[in-house]
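Allow me, if you will, to draw on your knowledge of protein folds for a short while. The matter concerns a single protein, recorded as an amino acid sequence and a row of backbone structure tokens. Could you please explain, in whatever detail you think fit, how the structure tokens follow from the sequence? I remain grateful for any guidance, and I place the record below:

…
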Amino acid sequence: MALVRSAHPEASSSSDASPSISSHDVFLSFRGEDTRKTFTDHLCTALMNAGFRTFRDDNDLQRGEYIKPELEKAIEQSRSSVIVFSKDYASSGWCLDELLMIMERRRTADHIVLPVFYDVDPSHVRKQTGSLAKAFAGHERNQFLKYKVKRWREALTEAADLSGMVLQNEADGYA
């Protein structure tokens, strides 16, 4: 999942921001290999052009820092999240961990979550069928991930139950 920090000077310095202060309007969550150079790039540009301070991990993570704490901080300091579910989203443990953080933030704070189902059926996300079933079969074979699989499944179901947008992959991300 990638998010881009806006050029607003007050948003660029996150060291003095507390978790209760929003540094970003939107945190973008996505599987980079699926949509980074297409739909998500267009979405991020549109959000930023509309004045939304947007966090995308490929631009905003500090080099040399641990990824998970940086992502947690970005999610905590965002007012909302847009989750771009794609066919291979669930194959990434990073994406699924990020989803857990986003859904937890939704439950404990006034954090808005908008799911975008990009070239994937919402029912496949909700029930983990289709390409998601294949991804979970792989996760379940890994002994170290077994304890997370149940939580990941619950988070996917919870996110898929939210009202969102269903988009088909047309014209390189322009639906």
In short: Strands lie at 24-30, 54-55, 78-85, 112-118, 165-167. The chain has a mean pLDDT of 82. The CA atoms of residues 142 and 149 lie 10 Å apart.
